[in-house]
Amino acid sequence: MTNSQKNRIKDRIFEYFGIASTFFGLVILAIFIGNIVVDGISRIDWDFMTNLPSRKAERAGIFTAWSGSLWILSLTTLIAFPLGVSAGIYLEEYGKKTRLASLLEVNISNLAGVPSIIYGLLGLEIFVRVFQMGNSVLAGAFTLSLLILPIIIVSTRESIRAVPPSIRAASYGLGATKWQTIWHQVLPSSMGGILTGVILAISRAVGETAPLIVVGALAYVPFAPKSPMDEFTVMPIQIFNWVSRPQHGFTVNAAAAIIILLIITFVMNGIAVYLRNKWEKKISW
Amino acid sequence: MNRKNTEKIIEWLLKSSAIITILTTVGIIWVLLSESYSFFQEVSLSDFLTDTEWTPLFVVKHFGILPLISGTLLTTFIAVSVALPIGLTIAVYLSEYAPKRFRKIVKPLLEVLAAVPTVVYGFFALMVVTPFLQKLIPGMAGFNALSAGIVMGIMIIPFVSSLSEDALQAVPKSLRNASYGLGSTRFQTAFKVMVPAASSGIVVSVILAFSRAIGETMIVAIAAGQQPRLTANPLVPIETITAYIVQVSLGDVPHGSLEYKTIFAAGMTLFIFTFILNNISFWIRKKFREQYD
């Protein structure tokens, strides 16, 4: 066999290896999810969605868990969306090339690498103790907001950067102020990208477990929260609690709750991808 | 109120939002330092760094962080040895072999791996991977570092593959074309030209994967056990720094007690590890940014 034949064979072998690797993770994930669906799908019914937690696996439901998750989702969005988008606008439109801006930039990329459980420790000390929020939904939402802020800021900046400078110049030329330009021109045309980033960040928050355990979300809460100051649990913590129990009934419950959590996660990610594609098509400079 | 003032107020509001990120960092460092400081009033630093037992919740208390560090590093190395070869192969394949359309479809699919909540991966590790491995390796414990590490590796595949692929894509096309022009195969071009040219970006992706694996919590809390021990054996229960913090948070530990302070000392250790890794990657990106023009 000549050298060039050998090289060609190597080339071909790597190609197959590459295809195999690309699908390796996805196939494993599909097997995992298939397993869970088989375990849990028959457990999902109206009672499972509306029952309170119980010591008996077959009577336990996820009502408190999903209402807690809904509270967390809404409050976190209310806090993180305006803060993150404002910070992104400041960095991209106002604070360019100042010393503060480069400090902010290094800082944000560092924050993005801080493990989520460390945010839990921050929330426990600052929100739960210093601000005296207790183990409330509000303390959890503030903690998760700080966690997802870097994601929202980065995606806001990227979407704003995609708006060509000529749009701004035209707006200034017509006598608009800086804020008028941002509000009427820059934000509307970058909203698709911004929303995509926000939805992805929120979907991350819905799946977070560790920081909420640290700020004192409980595994067993007999009632759904009625105000931001109430104690709470969320879907991932309920799942964690059921996984940790040896009885088979709770494993089945965990699988069923995972199906619901995965549906929520995938739907949010799907919406994000859809928005991104739609906006990309609609706006072409 | 005139327009100029409105503009000023708006700018000030936007700026304050941005400054919250700095306050977050200051807050993290302050919280970790102050609680760790009062921890080290009661436990000596040399005990913390050299004692080989970690038993703060037992009657006979030992405060050696080494078992938690070894547990963390063990699961991390297992995860990275799964994610690195697979992620890098995917990156090279997508960048150098795959048709453009295929890449466009597959990339978002791979991101799904990172979007699945970690508590779900924990369930997989405990309920699917461990029983499967127990059939292959008799005597493997129900909680172990191996399953947790492997599943964590699958989760971080997209971190390695997408950052490495970006690095490969950033290499100018002329290098690739020159290599083809000399008669190289795609394989030779990929591994003798493109990968070396993109090496700094690839190293960054690996470092970030390490950092991500060190901080990962739920998979190890569910599947790796709660028994801190200084071992490199992947088949027995261990405990990571993150899993310990979860374990204490689930219990009823009173504020201000020594047990309460241990989670901040453990958190400080974790933060130092990831902080160093993140800054190395930041430095590499700044220093070795390939300039072609």
Structure description:
- The complex is a heterodimer of chains A (285) and B (293).
- By secondary structure, chain A is mostly helical.
- Chain A has 2 domains: 3-43; 47-282, MetI-like fold (Orthogonal Bundle).
- In chain A, 76% of the residues lie in helices and 0% in strands.
- Chain A is built from 11 helices and no strands.
- In chain A, helix 1 (3-40) crosses helix 11 (248-282), helix 3 runs parallel beside helix 6 (137-161) and helix 3 packs across helix 10.
- Chain A is globular and about 70 Å long.
- Chain B is mainly alpha-helical and 293 residues long.
- Chain B folds into 2 domains: 3-42; 66-287, MetI-like (MetI-like fold, Orthogonal Bundle), CATH 1.10.3720.10.
- Helix content of chain B is 76%, strand content 0%.
- Chain B has helices at 3-42, 45-50, 66-97, 100-115, 118-136, 145-170, 173-181, 186-197, 199-215, 218-223, 241-250, 258-287.
- In chain B, helix 1 (3-42) crosses helix 12 and helix 11 (241-250) packs antiparallel against helix 12.
- Chain B is globular and about 70 Å long.
- Chain B starts with a helix and ends in a 6-residue tail after the last helix.
- At the A-B interface, helix 1, helix 3, helix 4, helix 5 and helix 6 of A face helix 1, helix 3, helix 4, helix 5 and helix 6 of B.
Domain count of chain A, please report it: 2
Count the E strands of chain B.
0
| CATH topology description of the largest domain in chain A | MetI-like fold
CATH classification, class level of the largest domain in chain B? Mainly Alpha
CATH superfamily of the largest domain in chain B, please?
A: MetI-like
First CA to last CA of chain B: what distance?
A: 52 Å
Q: Within the CATH hierarchy, at the fold level, what is the topology of the largest domain in chain B? A: MetI-like fold
Characterize the biggest β-sheet of chain A: none
Structural class of chain B: mainly alpha
Largest interface: A-B, 86 and 82 residues
CATH architecture of the largest domain in chain A, by name, is Orthogonal Bundle
Please trace the helix and strand order of chain A, writing H or E for each element. HHHHHHHHHHH
Instruction: Work out the radius of gyration of chain A.
Output: 23 Å
- The helix-and-strand class of chain A reads mainly alpha
What level of helicity do the residues of chain B show?
over 70%
Average residue pLDDT of chain A: 90
List the uncertain runs of chain A: none
**Strand tally of chain A, please?**
0
Number of domains of chain B: 2
Mean of residue pLDDT values of chain B: 92
